[in-house]
Design a protein that fits this description.
Helix content: 25-40%
Distance between the termini: 67 Å
Low-confidence stretches: 3-7
Largest sheet: 8 strands, antiparallel
Length: 460
């Protein structure tokens, strides 16, 4: 959507979005129509980035071909979902978001086979041409960014859990944060397939890639902020990990983990046989960091040896706390996470928010929670659009400013209408430099003209 400044000058950013349900419509047409609607709002700048969030219940390649038919040669990135967010929760369709700004530059890379070797996938995308310099240990990339008045955001789309493989999203985000030396905020989610949990895909340029990691380095002079929140609170019920292998907790408080966990919930092990523990119980576990903030860690299934499989690895001695949804906090999480993003980025005039919403929240908080939280997010933005998807988990910057992946959480990326103070300062410096150069050229010309006149007088 084109937004002119108060003086009527060219806007720093334009955006548009379009949504189409696939009912009775070919996938190519759905993608092309949604993309054409999104592009119709762009009137001044060339497209910088097109995001696609779509139901997996269609011919994904034809859908992507339709999007590209409408937008042309521009980075087209996205993921399959468990629902799309277009100012409200939608399902079974395709959402296309188009961004256009001369202050927005995108480089991306993708790697498949994440469930077999997520470390290899991370190494592959961070070593890709155009992306590798952002992960150099030297300060050169930072100096270059500062000289341009630019900031960097890492957009990370990862495979969600399936019936055949656990998700490595937590580990991937930790690895990206480590490889980038914590320099850049991370905003991401996990692709899924409308809860079938059979497969998932990312949209990477002209390709649809299954079981793949997509990393985009977004360099921008625009104001933006990223935040992550979950709205759960700690209870007094706690247990300590006493034996663990990776993500599988074997013992809690010195006893078989499955038994202790069941007792923690006031139940017995047989009640959870072959059931997804978080979905069956409606409860989450969490652990506190050094500042006392809780990160969620969701139980999946009991293992054959009585273990408890978690979404995140833990160490022996970790205290796991039973978390509960605070109705007042949980329904306000949409507004809270947007407000945090606005404050963190110093966004003076938000134009839109991208929301990555964990699909588990609807199962834990009730079906009305999603709508309430999206409405809360829109209210916090003053009615600006809220767009995005429901995936498996969300990645963003937590209360301590550190990027992480959490299940049952909400992540927000808020983009502002204006340039950041650093970008404005760079613009001003460039204007001054141009003015000085123009003055130097004018003086040189006058000196040359004066010298020529003097030579003519001398000859006479």
């Amino acid at each position: 959507m084109t937004a002119r400044t108060e003086s009527g000058s060219v806007p720093e950013i334009e955006f548009g979005y379009g949504y189409r349900r696939r009912t009775g419509q070919d996938a190519f047409a759905a993608g092309a129509d949604a993309a054409a609607e999104a592009r119709s709002f762009i009137g001044t700048h060339a497209l910088s980035l097109v995001l696609v969030y779509a139901s997996a219940d269609c011919d994904l390649q034809r859908l992507l071909d339709g999007v590209r038919h409408s937008v042309g040669e521009v980075p087209v990135l996205g993921a399959t979902t468990a629902g799309e967010i277009c100012n409200q929760l939608q399902e079974g369709g395709v959402l296309v978001v188009a961004l256009a700004s001369p202050h927005l530059r995108v480089r991306w890379a993708a790697a498949a086979g994440v469930s077999q070797d997520w470390r290899k996938a991370v190494d592959e995308v961070t070593a890709a041409a155009g992306i590798a310099p952002y992960f150099e240990p030297t300060l050169d990339p930072q100096r270059d960014l500062a000289a341009r008045g630019a900031s960097v955001l890492l957009l990370c789309l990862m495979p969600g859990a399936t019936r055949h493989a656990a998700s490595a999203a937590f580990e991937i985000v930790e690895a990206l944060r480590s490889k980038s030396f914590g320099r850049y905020p991370i905003f991401g989610t996990c692709a899924t397939d409308d809860w079938r949990m059979e497969a998932n895909s990312v949209f990477a340029g002209s390709q649809v890639l299954g079981d793949a990691l997509l990393l985009a380095v977004v360099e921008t002079g625009l104001e933006f902020g990223v935040a992550l929140s979950h709205g759960f609170r700690a209870t007094a019920a706690r247990v300590t990990v006493s034996a663990v292998e990776g993500n599988e907790v074997l013992a809690l408080d010195g006893r078989i983990a499955a038994d202790v966990y069941s007792q923690l919930l006031g139940s017995n092990r047989a009640a959870f046989h072959n059931k997804h523990l978080t979905l069956a119980s409606g409860r989450a576990l969490g652990s506190a960091d050094a500042s006392g903030r809780y990160s969620l860690n969701l139980p999946g299934y009991f293992t054959p040896r009585g273990g408890l499989r978690l979404t995140q690895p833990v160490a022996e001695g970790t205290v796991l706390t039973l978390m509960e949804a605070d109705p007042m906090m949980a329904f306000a999480t949409g507004a809270e996470v947007v407000q945090q993003a606005v404050a963190r980025g110093g966004v003076s005039e938000p134009v839109l928010a991208l929301l990555h919403y964990c699909a588990l929240r609807a199962r834990l908080l009730g079906e009305t929670a999603v709508g309430d939280e999206i409405e809360g997010a829109r209210g916090a933005l003053g009615g600006a659009p809220v767009l995005g998807c429901c995936g498996f988990g969300a990645a963003g910057a937590g209360g301590d400013g550190q990027s992480r992946h959490n299940d049952a959480a909400v992540a927000a990326l808020v983009i502002g209408r204006r340039l950041s103070p650093a970008a404005l300062a760079t613009q001003q410096q460039q204007r001054l430099q141009r003015a000085v150069l123009e003055q130097v050229r004018t003086l040189d010309q006058r000196v040359e003209e004066g010298t020529l006149g003097l030579n003519v007088t001398t000859k006479s």
